[in-house]
Amino acid sequence: MVKKSIHDINRKIEEGNVRVVTAEEMVDIVKVTSVSEATKEVDVVTTGTFGAMCSSGAWLNFGHSDPPIKMKKVWLNDVEAYTGVAAIDAYIGATQLSDSMGIEYGGAHVIEDLIRGKSVDVHATSYGTDCYPRKMLNTTLTIDDLNQAIMQNPRNAYQKYNVATNSSNTTLKTYMGILLPNNGNVTYSGAGVLSPLSNDPNYETIGTGTRILLGGSQGYVTGIGTQHSPETNFGTMMVQGDMKRMSPEYVKAASFEGYGTSLYVGIGVPIPILNEDIARATAVSDDDIVTNILDYGVPSRNRPTIRQVTYGELRSGMIDIAGKEVPTSSLSSFKKSRQIASELKESIIQGDFNLTLPVERLSSKTVNRPMKQTSVNPLVGDIMSESVVTIKENASTYEAANKIMTCSFNHLPVVSDKNILTGIVTAWDISKAVAKKEFDFVGNIMTRNVITATPNEPIDIAAYRLDQNLVSALPVIDDKRNVVGIITSDDISKLLARRGNL
Amino acid sequence: MKIRIDISSDIVGKPIVAESIVETGALLNISQAHLDSTRGELVADIENEKYTDINKALTKRGAKVTVLDTPIIRDEDECIECGACISVCPVDVFSFEADWSLKVEQEKCIQCGTCIQMCPHNALSLER
Ligand code: SF4
Ligand code: SF4
């Protein structure tokens, strides 16, 4: 069995005879030769990824002003940064939104602007102390004026990502982009065959101290990322690099409609081929990496998995969901991921990039747990009124008006003979009909596209749906669309008022 | 010229296109139609000199007419060629080349605007 050490490989880099290939090229090399041949032949496999990495940000040190200030709060171009660390250090997070521009501009944009060399307006406030008397500060500076601008991203380069689709009947705007109704499209992320952690799934070479390409310049893996979950093959890493040396080509701000901002970060990780196991792992192809398609139409942490899928299928542009061909969209850029893997390959060949042995490998045991919640979320079924009054489609407008008068409900769900929900009619619909002198059947004046809730949904979800659709009541239905209750915005505000008093 | 006719839910059941054709004598050559109970969207070719008439006739009946003369524009400096736009376009304007560059077939665009909302990098626009 072939074995090499990092020193052997670094010596070859120095001597100018190192053999480096990208993770994509490695797939074919192993296919046409063999794992042992490939281990002998190849010294380093380079990986690359370029996608939205929300869990990113940077530590900035501003230097002391005169008179000095201990920043209690600080904004850069109106985006707040975290200041709870000494006087003039702050952490600007990628997803923090601008106070004035909302989701158009956020921490990610401040980071990109700094890297582009643009000047940024800084505004800070404080309470004043004997040692830091100043209470307010305004200045304008560029990245060159900062003592340090260190990018430190708590969770980057997920081994693989879940895939999103939406079975509901409304368009959703998510961090996975626009999800069209009725599983109209599928969005995915990650570099598949080029994904750093998918090429070293046992973390044999990646760990604390691994030198990587971050944002176009040399950076390091500092350890496991938050939510690192190797047991489910969702490993992550925490990375750090000097922002002053980064290139805007590999650090790009993004804004997802209806969600917020994020930072696209380019990361390239070299994998030294020390033995056959490592070589075999780097031969992983898009067809070998399996992930889950989740239904974002279900607004719960436990989104149902619709099916499993490989990156190979996703990259083909169309996948099958329940017998229907659905188009796919990547949110990360495969072309840029490739570019990063090739640039890393070139700089190793040129002798500009040495490999490192990690001080400690990424843990392969942690699992990611959901939040412990100490207060229980009430469900729709807990607070809905069960004594809901319904009406038939063929009832007259007059009858509907009468029912609303006597039962003092503003909303009447309309049902078929079998008690299946077919529409809703409100006091407003009736007034409209009367004003137009259309004393018609309920079926002709009702709204057919009814927004509904189910008894076992959390209240917060129903409240969100009320807001989104600008309605004030939701008929509650079971899985046969039988009406079992109704929940109104009044019910919910009463509940929230009670919660507030606790 | 190419036009898009948007018909909102409250008038989607009415024969407004037929009435407008009869009223103006304009020959609408409908190349695409997406109709359901919530809305309607038609794409059609029409002779240039008939445009003013048909626009008036349709607008009077509550439809919205858009001339399809400013197709989608991509800012190549902002675009990272992710392909997020590909799956949301109803007429397949976007696709990948063999080397994963983004191919844009502008002439197919019906100016619906969906891809603009999708693009994370603000690289797409319909304005001139
Ligand atoms: S979504 Fe935007 S950035 Fe992505 S490929 Fe399309 S135009 Fe380019
Ligand atoms: S505006 Fe609509 S039709 Fe035109 S490219 Fe975008 S999604 Fe496609």
Automatic annotation (TrEMBL), chain B:
InterPro entries: 4Fe4S_Fe-S-bd (IPR017896), 4Fe4S_Fe_S_CS (IPR017900), ACT-like_dom_sf (IPR045865), Fe-S_Ferredoxin (IPR050572). The keyword 4Fe-4S applies. Residues 69-99, 100-128 form the 4Fe-4S ferredoxin-type domain. The keyword Electron transport applies. One of its GO terms (molecular function) is metal ion binding. It holds the Pfam family Fer4_21. Gene3D superfamilies: 3.30.70.20. Keywords: 4Fe-4S, Electron transport, Iron, Iron-sulfur, Metal-binding, Repeat, Transport. This is 4Fe-4S dicluster domain-containing protein. It comes from Methanosalsum natronophilum.
